[in-house]
Automatic annotation (TrEMBL):
One of its GO terms (biological process) is regulation of DNA-templated transcription. Coiled coil: none annotated. InterPro entries: Sig_transdc_resp-reg_C-effctor (IPR016032), WH-like_DNA-bd_sf (IPR036388). One of its GO terms (molecular function) is DNA binding. This is OmpR/PhoB-type domain-containing protein. Transmembrane segments: none annotated. The lineage of its organism: Bacteria, Pseudomonadati, Pseudomonadota, Gammaproteobacteria, Vibrionales.
Length: 99
């Protein structure tokens, strides 16, 4: 998957289409932190919505991100790290250290 971000705008997305802006912004958050880094729920909500939202909003958007990644046949998935947040992981490297 290639996701290029410049000044908070997605300028290049290879094989990712028909996404809502919330999904794009959520993927941008993971792109900024990089793979295998935990991103807190608060950080995602703050960047994507810039206002208070329920956990259900976040869960729904994460589900959409997972679907986009799966449909794009990338080697990445968004994994829930219980009690901490979410992490963009390379499924080929599952089991390696997260941090």
């Amino acid at each position: 998957m290639k996701l290029k971000v410049e000044e908070e705008m997605v300028v290049e997305m290879s094989s990712l289409t028909n996404m809502s802006m919330l999904t794009v912004r959520t993927l941008c958050v993971f792109s900024r932190y990089g793979e295998n880094h935990i991103v807190s729920k608060y950080s995602i909500k703050d960047y994507v919505w810039q206002r208070p939202v329920t956990d259900n909003n976040l869960t729904h958007t994460i589900h959409k991100c997972r679907n986009v990644l799966k449909e794009s046949k990338t080697e990445f998935d968004v994994v829930n790290i219980r009690g901490f947040g979410y992490c963009l992981m390379n499924t080929n490297l599952a089991g390696h250290n997260i941090g």
